[in-house]
Amino acid sequence: MAIQVRHYIGGQWVAGSTGETMKTFNPATGEPVAEVAVAGPAEVRAAAAAAARAFPAWRRVPAPKRGEILYRLAEILRERKEELARLLTREMGKVIVEARGDVQEAIDMAYYMAGEGRRLSGQVVVPSELPDKWAMAIREPIGVVAAITAFNFPIAVPSWKILPALVLGNTVVWKPSPDTSATAAAFVRCFEEAGVPAGVINLLVGGGPEVGRALVEDPDVKMISFTGSTQVGREVYAAAARHLKRVALELGGKNAITVLADADLDLATEAILWAAFGTTGQRCTACSRVIVEEAIYDELVRRLVPRAQALKIGDGLDPTVQVGPLINERALQRVEAYVAEARAAGIEILCGGERADLGRGYFYKPTILGRVPPESKFAQEEIFGPVLALIVVRDLEEAIRVNNAVAYGLSSAIFTRDVNKAFKAMRELDTGIVYVNHGTTGAEIQLPFGGTKATGNGMREAGLAALDTFSEWKSIYVDYSGRLQRAQIDTDALARLPE
Ligand code: UN1
Questions:
Q1: How confident is the model at residue 313, as a pLDDT?
Q2: Among 19, 27, 214, 390, who pairs with 44 as Cys (CB 3.0-4.6 Å)?
Q3: What is the CATH topology of the domain spanning 255-436?
Q4: What pTM was estimated for this model as a whole?
Q5: Ligand 1: which of 104, 229, 284 to mutate, most ligand atoms within 8 Å of CB?
Q6: Fold of 3-251+456-475
């Protein structure tokens, strides 16, 4: 029996008014997982209005109390971790250990932001240039935040947006990917049970791009936090600009691991396999390029290829499976088209290069392309699948140039035993996240997450940086001198000191 999924608006689970439904499917088996109500403009309006109504009371709940609710949420997520992870794997396809990691990331974020409820540090008692004058800067919530998220991290990524937003006193309308609607609803049920008041979090399921557009345009929505493609991100940014709304964008990546000749090749091999083929390459942080020094190219290929061929492909619920399916037929076709084009362009397919025939599901074999020209589309465009391009370079300088010569800038990594080279790379790699002797995935929630260039618009999620993203600064001056003191005019502060 398919799970019935509805919208959550103003504390009620509702079918909405479109009368339409859609289904989500298990990408490993093709079986239906959920029957989902489809949101339309009326649901967007209702959810945004409910969030706006809930805002004045929620912003006045003391932040430590908001934090306590998030702490309860963390505990509920911990209890339900296995249940949520299994549903996530069924609906999205990633292997079960990774699904547990996805939930764990939200648990980590909930505890972290619960603690922020007792901190939320502003700049307290900032020096004033005038005597008997007190100054400070505090954080205020922005209002209704629209969170628009992708299928690939259906719990972790939404938690990066929703939890900081809530602890700061914002209210939220969340539009998840329609492909992971049941997972989204199960996540929101945890908020409800944790005691998040009606209207503080709202969920719109089943909605396509028009629902996203309506959210961006809705007058009650004050900020949009979007994770998805660079193309859609641009549209969101442009549409929001007309209303001067704040936007935080997490978009594409073309992340590279550089392997220098002195690297620990066993370690680099493990790391490349995990970063390139984990989550079937469907991470924003996935490694899709390996930049390798010529001297060790053959050796690295010799190690990587048999290991990539040996990865077990299948249903992520089987704990021995290492690579799950792609999310849907469209994603599979996109990968196929890229590989067909690479083949036609004469690029060597070192392994994979075809669907994995398991009788059902959207499976593609881990694929490695050899000696890919760094300026070719296979080394420039985000494929979002299990396709890895190997690029040969002469030295570190060229590696850094190649790493940086793409439109995106999310994550990068370098393998070397030379501390001088490692530090040089840390300085020069033009990405929001840099790893030394580790692959490009595995960001932890207490550090800022985000990228440079076409990966975003300079905003960051997670870490303390998330507090800036989801709050408005308010500077407050209290003059207790009892007389008019003019900043920048009455500059002789000493003369103004009382006798
Ligand atoms: C994403 O792919 O959108 O760093 C998020 C990582 C994970 C999060 C990825 N912690 O790979």
A1: 98
A2: 214
A3: Aldehyde Dehydrogenase; Chain A, domain 2 (3.40.309)
A4: 0.97
A5: 284
A6: Aldehyde Dehydrogenase; Chain A, domain 1 (3.40.605)
